[in-house]
Amino acid sequence: RRLLGWFLLSLALAGAQGLTPAHHLSLPDVARLQSLLSQQFTDLESAYYSVLGLTKLGAAVSDHKQVCRFIKSQLDPTSIDSVFFAAEASQAISGCEIPVSNETRDILLAAVSEDSTMTQIHRAVSALSSLGLPVASQEVVGALTARINKEDNVMAITSALQTAARLSKQAELGGILEEIEDLTARLDDLGGIYLQFEEGLEATAMFVTAAYSLSDHVDMEPPLKEDQVIQLVNSIFSKKSWDSLAEAFSVASAAAALSNNRFHVPVFVSAQGPATVSHSQPTLQLLVTDVMSQPLASANVLVESAYAVASKSIILNQAPFTLNDGVFELNFMSKQPASGYYQFTIAVTGDSRLVANHVELKVKVSTEVAVANMDLSVVDKDQSIGTKTTRVDYPSKAKSSFTADSHQNFAMSFQLVDVNTGVELTPHQTFVRLHNQKTGQEVVFVAEPDSKNLYKFELDTAERKSEFDSISGTYSLYLIVGDATLENPILWNVADVVLKFVDEEAPATIQAKTLYVPKPEIQHLFREPEKKPPTVVSNTFTALVMSPFLLLLILWFKLGANISNFSFSPSTILFHVGHAAMLGLMYVYWTHLNMFQTLKYLAIIGGVTFLAGNRMLAQKAVKRYVS
Amino acid sequence: MSNSVISVISRFLEEYSSSTPNKLKVVDAYLLYILLTGALQFLYCLLVGTFPFNSFLSGFISCVGSFILAVCLRIQINPQNKGEFLSISPERAFADFLFAHTVLHLVVMNFIG
Name one GO biological process term (chain B) (predicted). Predict the structure, then answer.
């Protein structure tokens, strides 16, 4: 039974690896949005966007009294839009009461009808609600429902959703609530990553705001799947600079809606700095925030499982992070992991609203490498003379240089170990570089480890002479060790090696390898036309091939074939003319025309010939029957 | 042996010239002409080479096709085969012959290059 439980859990985990947000508003993004919204406003509409936008971001609006004065001075009590902007903005700042006359109230109430546009209804109802005036909710619902049928576009229906969120909960909001699902179906899925309206960012962001606003109001979960929510997050927050105040306002509204609603709160998990741990930096630090980079302090973060990418062995299971000054920390080095990459599956729990709360993170464990047991020797090829091994310690250089000529091999062996654990390492880059100081030549070889992780390098002077262009001399030998998981790459001048090559065939000056100069031009050889036989031969054979025709005429004459029975009826003449024309067409086809033109002419001539021929043959048949 | 072959051939020729109607002999002469033309084309190809190959093919196929169509015509207008071709009068056979030739020549001219 336990096995079954684990199996189901692993299935659930596998299914739970849904989409995670690729974009969100980082702290610099939020600051940029705020500064755009803080610009000096010129009219009531921009005041509305600024004040409400900043409020949604949780930022302070400067100098409320001045804003209030501005609003009151710009207010036009006969315009629904003006009253709307003023009412909403004044609600957001403290101590700002807009006086409302009976006329204004009547204008607003009159707007609630199916003859007004959706925008007018939305603004009127919102203004009435913000000013604390009574609203006939059921009437509004009726007007909205009628308008939805007439104005079927995204922005209008979004306005309807927003309006419904301001109505009494007792009203029949079910019909309007269903519009959320209809609008969701209209979203375009781009590559499985983005979900947005073709009308653009503002429409998408306002839709999200309105959907959650209404859903919260009626306390019913919106019909958005987790993946869809994340796709919407990607669409709305991928743009980092905004064209207009209205667009900035819509993004701010969406950010506020997605970080604080009753149903879906997308989580953004990222490592603070590079996701690397080492001996000097043993803790893995994570930032767990909402889409506005506000930390989710009430969350519990834990590593569900972590395994080494190379060996697939599990190193962590259900390990919790601890919250430390807004950052979630885990001391990974305490588990003494070997250097390399680890795949972490992190879960954020503690709130049932969290969306995309299972994240995969690749963590690197780096370490420092040390070279141990570096032994250099010159080995005679026939192995008759014993080898003399010199031990060199990093980072010093061997005191004396080594000489190897064509009878000898130069050999090097060493081990690479992890400084902290003493474990043998096999880094990606282990090179031996020989550099001729006089000529500037450089030859690089790869050192390979054997089965016991002991690195060996052997230089056969005779075999490798082509790499060196057979230039004898003193070469500095360097060991190069590097890897993504090493903090201390090594470039170590180990020793000097004097190489003596047989037959110094090399030129006096070394030509730098000409890899990037223009290559010799290739002359294109056009296809040679095939050899034609001499004209005499072809002419002869042409005559030869035509000769059987002569024979035919002779035979026919001998047989007595004649055209004495030729009747001069019109169909006969037409037939023969037509037939001749067809043969002529064949010749013209060969010389001038293409198939389509020929078929066209053939159809015409052939049709005529056919009809005439049919007539002619019928006449002949009749004649034959009669005789 | 050769004697019997010669006598068979001469007997055949005699029978042929006496019992074959003139119309058929006309068609037979035409068949011979086509045959020779085709054979000569093939000979050229063997001796001189296949360049240009498409022209050779088109010419040769033209001969082969014409030969076949003429044979069909001959079979259909032979009064001895009347029983087999009750619905096809000689005129109809000739008309078919002409139509098939039109198609053949269209293809041949296309291919001759």
Answer: protein N-linked glycosylation
